[in-house]
Amino acid sequence: MSRLCLHGSLAVCALLMASSVMAAAGHVYFVRGDVKIVEGNGGFRYAWKGGEIQQGETIRTDKYSSAQLRMTDGGILAIRPATHLKIESYHFSNDEEEDKSFFGLLKGSFRAITGLMGIRNKKSFLVTTPTSTIGIRGSDADMGFDEDRQLTAVRTYSGSHTLTGRGINGDPSTLVISPGDIGIHLAGSDPILGDFFPFAMPAPNQQGERNRTEMLKQKRQKLTENQKQPGKAREMPPLPVVGRVANEIGTGEEVDVKINIENIQQVPSGVAAVGADMWINSSDNVTATGGGGFVTDASDNVWVNGSGNVVGLVDADIHSAGLKFLAINGNHTSGGTFSISDGGNVVTAGKWGVWQGDFTVVDNGVIKNTISGFHYVYGKNPTSATAISNLGNVNFSYTQIGGIATNEAGALATNYQVSASGTFGSSPTLGTITIGLGSADFASGSSGWTGTFSGNISDLIGTGLIGSGNCASCTVAAGSSNGKFLGGAAQGLLTSLNLSDGINAVIGSAVLEIN
Q1: DSSP 8-class letter at 412
Q2: What is the pLDDT of residue 17?
Q3: Which pLDDT value is given to residue 240?
Q4: Quick check: 103 and 87 in contact, CB under 8 A?
């Protein structure tokens, strides 16, 4: 997997056997800007996505950089700008009495979601600052140390934490911090509850936090079950994204992009999305990408703003191109919502739309700046490949109930008709399908677009279908289409498509309902 691409989750890593001693304390999951890892011998190296972090090393961020670490017990550390955090001692094994997860916060701030060690042995997790000690009775908190004011602070989200420091008489004093509370310790004073957290770390969205907490519990449970089975490799659980805010989304060591949109949040788990984009090449001709990327059942992969419009889309398929789309002050020109019912029960719902203007597409780590448009459609309850194969040897047809298309100049289609038909089959092809672009007309420029995209269903929901088409005023065009089925019995279908003759183009997304 390229470290230049941001995927919704890392591939499952094969670790040492459960009875073995872990060589690494953790791995870098995300890095933005220049992040240094200072080694025990005084040397340093730059952090990169996937790189190991060892006991005794210090992670240093400057005022423009940040990082996220995933520890070998499943714990998460989101390290903020201008922070020095040292891994003093780290040991994770079968024997919980030997667990150690001790950190030294020399300056700055970070967020910590403790892993399995913090659950089974709360004494195993400690954070020290030059003036204070932080212990856990829970799992999630922001922590910070201001070296100028000699101030330590803790903001608890779940469980509880302890903050211990010496007061005015020199005796140690301990404060227990409950969820929603903030503990403050100034050197020479007793720890007290404060009104605000004195570090620039935004509090998380509550609903999103509940989703991430539940996901983390499930991953911890899986880790615990593996831990109880001698001889079985311990799996490293995928990272639930924490602390990822609008100005901190990046794609790795060599590509750095930002989202300057407020109130960004991840969609709940159980959502599929498709997208399509186009840009102008060096010869000022249109280049339409292969129908965009799609993601399935991954809350880490689709970001929406307060209006529910997609502002970030990540391709979870490691064979494809990683981060596909970031809206940066772009213009969401049009869109709509949909809902599909079966027998009176809603089986899926979602939204589609198009962004135009100043935004960025990252493809295999390369930023495509001269972008003309990005179309997307996303919905709940994606259909699994197993469910599709279980539908049997049945013919199907779908009719469009929503969607939108533009040409290379960004003009909206006045008429846009997409249909699909084929036969459900068994693995591995899952059957055959044809996506038809029946019409896409524009008030100006090329008009009368039609096209056909045919192949196996496994290609549609995988690498995409290859297609061809034409229009009233252009030569024969080529393009592709991606798609994803929705509902327990594939009652809905998402698709994105594009066609280009190298000068003119049509690009669109659509949602279809089974007839």
Answers
A1: B
A2: 26
A3: 26
A4: yes
Task: Count the Cβ atoms, other than its own, within 10 Å of residue 2.
Answer: 16
What is the full DSSP assignment across 243-297? S--TT----SSS-------TT-EEPPSSEEEEEEEEEE-TTS-EEE-SS--EE-S
Dihedral angle over CA of 57, 62, 67, 69, nearest 10:
20
Burial of 444 (0-12, 13-18, 19+ CB in 10 A): exposed
How many whole angstroms separate alpha carbon 145 and alpha carbon 108? 5
Q: Exposed, middle or buried by CB within 10 Å (0-12, 13-18, 19+), for 117? A: buried
Write the DSSP symbol of residue 323.
E
pLDDT of residue 154: 94
- In the chain, which stretches have pLDDT less than 70? 1-23, 94, 122, 137-138, 200-264, 278-301, 314-330, 357-372, 444-445
Tokens of 301: 């992969």
Is the separation of the CB atoms in 294 and 315 below 8 Å? Answer: yes
The amino acid sitting at 434 is T
* Residue 221 CB contacts under 8 Å (≥ 6 apart), including other chains: none
Instruction: Give me the numbers of helices (H) and strands (E) for the chain, helices first please.
Output: 4, 39
How far, in Å, CA of 49 to CA of 69, rounded?
A: 9
Both tokens of 180, joined, read 């929603």
In 3D space, the residue among 350, 346, 338 whose CA is nearest the CA of residue 309 turns out to be 350
Q: Looking at the chain, how many residues does it have?
A: 515
Instruction: For residue 305, give the amino acid letter.
Output: N
- Rounded Cα distance between 174 and 197, Å, is 18
Contact 411/442 with Cβ under 8 angstroms? yes
Cis peptide before 237 (omega within 30 of 0): no
Q: CA–CA distance from 400 to each of 435, 494, 499 (Å)?
A: 11, 10, 19
213 contacts 221 by C-beta, under 8 angstroms = no
pLDDT of the residue at 292 = 53
pLDDT digits (tens, 9 = 90+) for 328-374: 556 888 899 999 999 999 999 999 998 876 555 555 445 555 556 78
Selection from 39, 43, 46 nearest residue 62 by Cα: 46
Residue 108: the pLDDT is 94
Q: Please name the residue that has the structure tokens 């907490």.
A: 213
Contact between 375 and 508 (Cβ < 8 Å): yes
Residue showing tokens 């798609």 = 483
Strand partners, 373: 278
pTM of full prediction above 0.70: no
Q: Tens of pLDDT along 203-223?
A: 444 444 445 445 444 544 554
Is beta strand 302-304 parallel, antiparallel or unpaired with respect to 331-342? unpaired
Spatial contact of 351 and 336, defined as CB atoms under 8 Å apart: yes
Closest CA to 107 of 172, 199, 201, 242: 199
